[in-house]
Design goal:
With about 150 residues, the chain is mainly beta. The chain has a domain of about 100 residues: Nucleic acid-binding proteins (OB fold (Dihydrolipoamide Acetyltransferase, E2P)). The chain is about 5% helix and about 45% strand. The radius of gyration is 20 Å and the shape is globular. The two termini are about 15 Å apart. The relative contact order is 0.19.
């Protein structure tokens, strides 16, 4: 058995570009940036960014082009594919994620940056207020076992 599955959550590095194929199907492409932090040989933390090319087809291509903008966060599930073509006698390659599912992140972009971009804290409530916190909003739909990734 073989498995080709990619799951990426990141921020768009550019606005999506939608085009129509000769068959009439829409295709949208954009790029997602992901960050990671690791320790180098000296024990110092280093930050690195990776960039992923994403391609979406069909109805999801239309909604992705309509609602996603540069800087917005998105979660993409799909498969990894490498295309090749020849340009001016030189073979070109491009590795991309062909999206099967795109979920838009929270409004206002992704996670706050470490440079003070965190949202302002809510106003402090008086210490005498002992009301119970509000119950979280749960989705009203049932969980589909086929949506569980394992």
């Amino acid at each position: 058995m073989f498995l080709n599955k990619a799951m990426i959550f990141g921020n768009l590095t550019r606005d999506p570009e939608m085009k129509a194929l000769p068959s009439g199907m829409n295709v949208t492409s954009f790029s997602l940036a992901t960050n990671r932090r690791y320790k180098d040989r000296d024990g110092n933390y280093q930050d690195a960014a990776d960039y992923h090319n994403i391609v979406v087809f069909g109805r999801q291509a239309e909604t992705s082009a309509q609602y996603l903008k540069k800087g917005a966060s998105a979660y993409v599930e799909g498969r990894i594919q490498t295309r090749s073509w020849e340009k001016d006698g030189v073979k070109q390659y491009r590795t991309e994620v062909v999206a099967e599912r795109v979920q838009f992140g929270p409004k206002g972009g992704g996670a706050p940056s470490s440079e003070g971009g965190a949202p302002a804290p809510a106003a402090a409530t008086p210490a005498t207020d002992t009301a119970a916190p509000a119950a979280p909003d749960y989705p009203e739909e049932d969980i589909n076992p086929e949506d569980i990734p394992f």
